[in-house]
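In the current project phase, the collection of sequences with tokenised folds has grown. A representative record is quoted in full directly below:
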Amino acid sequence: MEYRQLGRTGLSVSEIGYGAWGIGGSMWIGAQEDDSVAALHRAIELGVNFIDTARGYGDSERIVGGVVRDHPDVLVATKVPPKNMVWPAPDGLHPDETFPGSHIRQSLETSLAASGLEAFDLLQFHVWSDEWVGKGDWLETITDLRQEGKIRFFGVSINDYQPENAVALVRSGTVDTVQVIFNAFHQQPEEQLLPACAEHGVGVIVRVALDEGGLTGRVSSGTTFPEGDFRNTYFGGDRAAQVEQHVDALVADLGIGTDQLADVALRYVLDQPAVSTVIAGMRTVRNVERNAATSDGRRLTPEQRDAVRRHRWERNFYRAADA
């Protein structure tokens, strides 16, 4: 496992982190707790030292806490949901409606109790709007929580496909990390956000590097998901067929087998030096071993990078198909 600096925090994080949304039993359906615990333990054995969870991920905080209490060197990040429970953050709101200080504190205390941890290494807001810079009492609350030793660092999870909607925050110097969607299809963060983070020493946590499974090569027009699984919407209608067509074109251009696509997709993201860690969703030991193997120090060739860049495909499947 290779390691990188998490911005200016002084923390060294594994290139492959553990995204713990899928193990919480909410929205991603089908996770078995025994499998999740085994996957977490295997990830730590293979050198993964950064786990990302959230208050809104069902039982995820409890499961993660139960494992990492025996591994004090593993870093854990969690997230505060917006008080209004609206994802992503719409325009025109005041932070008193989304992240008032009392709400931040209450959510953190609930997360600490659920996980059994005494503190989190990183506390993130689960949505963000640059309209909130310099407004509300959220920054004072974050400062207080740090002084109390309940959190070490502060970050935000940027709204889906809005990477520019955190550049002002990055430049303000008040945030340690940002979490952003960045993958072989969604390349927009390379334009403004990643350069700003590199300039200001802000750590970058990449989510959805495999496009919710689309960049694994295992989503096709005939793919089905369990009832209640959010991927029925994400890949609904003709979207799975669209993904299949784009994936087929990408692997043909790269000259690789479909089973090699996930590895190439992760390497594409890791080729960006501003990226600190990629939090891959991993619910089984097999997934852990496959993703961890990508962190071996090898990088894509210039020809491979150019091929991926030719297949940029900006869209938002989190919105309803008719939106």
Notes: The first strand starts at residue 3 and ends at 5. The first helix runs from residue 33 to 45. The beta strands are 3-5, 12-14, 16-19, 50-52, 75-80, 120-125, 151-157, 177-181, 203-207, 277-281. The CA atoms of residues 119 and 150 lie 4 Å apart.
